Write the structure tokens for this entry.
Amino acid sequence: MLLKTDTFFNYKMFKIKRKQLLQKDIKTIWNFISNPYNLEKITPKDMSFEIISKNLEKEIYPEMIIKYKVAPFLKIKMKWVTKITEVQSEKKFIDKQIKGPYSFWEHEHILEKHEKGTMMYDVIKYKPPLGLIGSLCNFLFIKNKLNGIFNFRENFLEEKFNK
């Protein structure tokens, strides 16, 4: 369920917020979202997502590096490397881009207990490359692409945990 999505412009930094109620306990949701191998399941197929890191643990931990290839724009595959910078088990974790298509990317995943299950929040802060041109591209297509990715993720999680 998309409760609120807002994107704002603030010195070329953008932000997307998402909120979704999942009708399972926090432990179940945490076990799914903290497993890097589930990234492929929650990413649209047209992005050609592929983890290239070898022998990853099945649960994230601080300082974990995840390398993958993805085609975010125009079906051009690129390497994306993220680092898990913070983990509070069954509460939240943060991943930051080390190498990839953005000048800055930080994704905070937050879980809260809810009377009907688990409320999951995503807060994404990002900055496209190329300054003003990147900001214009964000207005024209990047923010729509990102919202499409998170819509796909929301639908997948809805089917998995709420049906």
